[in-house]
Specification:
By secondary structure, the protein is an alpha+beta fold. It has one domain (37-190). Helix content is 20%, strand content 47%. The chain contains 3 helices and 11 strands; from the N terminus they run H-E-E-E-H-H-E-E-E-E-E-E-E-E. Strands 1-2-3-4-5-8-9-11 form an 8-stranded antiparallel β-barrel. A hairpin with a 2-residue loop joins strand 9 (158-170) and strand 10. Helix 2 (78-84) packs across helix 3. The longest helix is centred in the N-terminal third of the chain and has 21 residues, at 6-26. This is DUF4840 domain-containing protein. InterPro entries: DUF4840.
């Protein structure tokens, strides 16, 4: 039988420790799954920050995202109605009378593999609302735009985007003066 010397024993231990150290370096953290276009699809809940001039409100809103469309079953129209109907009491009555306003936003998606995100380029259509006030219905058309792309972030599975109501037309007349309304969805998650 061979006898191990102290130096051979220390060399063997050093090799084992080195092996464990190198192995642990190769599995440093969770594996990041590459994002796909289909990852955007789902039901979302998120914070909506609405800003018009100095007024700022925050609400939680739900919406759906499918293949190429974001669908709201209740698009927030309070600020729009309050801009068209100046009397606060009549504006609240009109908001109740209008009820839920459905709105869909078309988008095209592309994967940005370097940042592990899906970029969304929006093509919003005008939002048309019939606002009842003083026994008359005012046909209101809201011109919505997306000044920047939206993003589905693969790391945390969140959707982020913003829209701006840049102009409002009431019965064919552009509303002036008018302060644009910003709809910011800074962090929306699937539920």
């Amino acid at each position: 039988m061979k006898k191990f010397t102290v130096s051979q024993f220390l060399t063997a231990i050093l090799m084992v420790i080195t092996g464990f150290t190198l192995y642990s370096c190769s599995v440093d953290g969770p594996e990041i799954r590459p994002v796909k276009l289909e990852d955007v699809n789902g039901d979302y809940k998120g914070r909506l920050i609405t800003i018009q001039g100095d007024n700022r409100t925050e609400k939680i809103k739900n919406f759906k995202a499918k293949k190429d469309t974001i669908m709201f079953s209740e698009f927030p129209v309070d600020e729009i109605v309050k801009t068209v109907v100046k009397d606060p009491v009549k504006a609240e009555e009109a908001i109740k009378a209008i009820g839920k306003v459905k709105y869909e936003i078309k988008y095209t998606a592309s994967v940005n593999a370097a940042n592990n995100v899906v970029e969304l380029s929006f093509a919003p259509t005008p939002l048309v609302i019939q606002i009842p006030v003083d026994g008359v219905t005012k046909k209101t058309e809201v011109g919505l735009i997306a000044k920047q792309k939206g993003f589905y972030v693969g790391m945390d599975g969140s959707l982020r985007f913003a829209l701006t109501a840049e102009k409002i037309t009431v019965d064919g007349t552009i509303l002036a003066p008018y302060e644009a309304i910003s709809y910011n969805f800074p962090f929306c998650v699937k539920y």
